[in-house]
Give the backbone structure.
Amino acid sequence: MSDGGKIEQRPLFGPFTETVPQGQAPLFPSRGEAAREVVEAPKPCRENEWLGISRLDELRPHILSCRACGLRDGAKGVVFGEGDPHARIMFVGEGPGRTEDETGRPFVGRAGQLLDYALKSIEFARPDVFIANIVKCRPPQNRLPLPPEVQACLPNLKAQMRILRPKIVVLLGALASQTLIHPSIRVTRDRGKWFTKEGVQYLVTFHPAAVLRDEAVKKRQLLDDMRSLREKWEEIGRDR
C-alpha cells in the first residue's frame, strides 16, 4: 500500500525480459534500480486451493461461485472465458461489458466482432485460442476494474494460465498489460512489443474497444500486431 492509503497495482509474475528493437532505448530501468522500486504484492491465499485442479472444466465451478469482491453482486453472471481448453495462445482483456455479462461469453459485442476479424486476418479463429479477462464480472457502467477488484480476481486468471500453460499471451489494452507485465506499460507507446516472462511470450496491443474509437489509425496497427503474433507462432512452433 502506498502513502495516502492508495492501493497500487503490482505485476502478477516475476522478472521478465524486454525485447528492445535495435536503435531504441529500453523501457525499464536497470535490474538494480527496478529492484528498489518494485515491491511484490502479497499473493491471495485462496489461490492455493486450486493447485490440484488440472482441467478448465474442473476449475469452472470454482470461478463461477467466486465472490472475492463486490463485482459479482452487480453482475448478472460470471464470464469464465472460452476457447480451446488446450490452447497455446491466450488473449486477455480487461473485463466483461454489457453484452458479455448478458451472454456469459467474452468479447461478443462490437469489440468481439473486431477481435474475430483480427483473428481471421491471420487465419486463426476463436476455437484456436483461449479468450479471458483480468476480471470475470462486469464492473458497473463498464468502468475499469479497481485495483482491489483486480487483485481479488487474479487467482482465477492465474489458475487458468497454470492449466493452459500458454506459449503466447496477447494483452488487450492497458489494464491487462500493466497487470501481467509492469505498471509502467503504456499501450500507445509499447504496442507491438514482445516481453518474455517465465518462458511465456507476451504481446502488448490495443483493446478492440479502443480501436473502434479510432479505427482510421489503430485498426491498421492492431492488424500489424496480429501479423507479428502469427510470425511469433510460426517461430516457436505449433507443437503442444
Notes: The two ends are 40 Å apart (CA to CA). The beta strands are 16-18, 82-83, 89-93, 130-133, 168-172, 194-197, 200-205.
